[in-house]
Amino acid sequence: MTMPPLPADTDLDLEPDADGELDAPARSGIQSIEVGFRLLEVLTHTTGPMMLRDLARAAPMNPAKAHRYLVSFARLGLVTQTPEGRYDLGPFALEMGLVSLNRQDPMRRARPAAAALRDEIDHTVGLAVWGNQGPAIVHWEEASHPVTVSLRLGDVMPMLNSATGRVFGAYLPRAQTRSFIQRELDRIAAQGESADSENPELPQTLEAYDAICADVRLRGVSRIHGGVLPGINAMSLPVFDANGQLCLVLIALGAQSTFDTTWSSPLERRLRLAAQQLSADLGYVAPNAPQC
């Protein structure tokens, strides 16, 4: 979404400051923008769409005043309204978030590495980060034989039955991921036995998910067989920053007929090496790495 330029004769109402510089308005700011931003801040830190009354209360702001801001934000694509009348972040907010993420140093380093890995293994390679809604896809490199997937940039991966979600579940603090995990467990419980038959790899309890996360930490790799996308295998691996914190997840996926998820297979070894190299490029020193 591209914002139109200001007309050439627009009056910017610039006043020189004490030093004769025309930057006083930049320092004083526009209060109405700062007030309206509180609504966007609330939506950024919540876990889902909100009713107007709840959003206004959290801002805090009069509902009628909040509605006027939301109308303008909706016109700009910063917010959107669901069919149920709830408000959520809109497509332009997502676009800004993705652009910002891609300008961060880890992403700048990871994108060319992902492209090179895709060229070498000829499977689709992606990158994910932790967002306010959970694990979010922020970069894709399609293989020469692209698989048919319904995932798009910005899509949020499930915690329980995606290789990517399990990596975040394994390495992020549980306080950060608990609400997302529990929400999916509650959904499974509401579905009853049908969830078991549709996906036998899907954990039904927190204890079962904890066991999966422990295995991911032990192996340093998460794999899934058609969990999110029927007929598609995937492997995801953690990428750590210089502080030893999980900053990215490296994803590779392909058709089950060609994507080998066997432990210690050539593909698994190459993905592991790629994740380790990317972590090292970001300044991470593995605990068992030789010291210089």
UniProtKB/TrEMBL annotation:
One Pfam family cited in the UniProt record for this chain: HTH_IclR
Ranges for region Disordered: 1-26
SUPFAM superfamilies recorded: GAF domain-like, Winged helix' DNA-binding domain
Domain HTH iclR-type, residue spans: 30-91
Domain of life the protein comes from: Bacteria
Compositional bias ranges of the Acidic residues kind: 10-22
Keywords recorded for this protein, A-Z: DNA-binding, Transcription, Transcription regulation
PROSITE patterns: HTH_ICLR, ICLR_ED
PANTHER family: HELIX-TURN-HELIX TRANSCRIPTIONAL REGULATOR, ICLR FAMILY (PTHR30136), TRANSCRIPTIONAL REGULATORY PROTEIN (PTHR30136:SF8)
Name this protein carries in UniProt: IclR family transcriptional regulator
Species classification: Bacteria, Pseudomonadati, Pseudomonadota, Betaproteobacteria, Burkholderiales
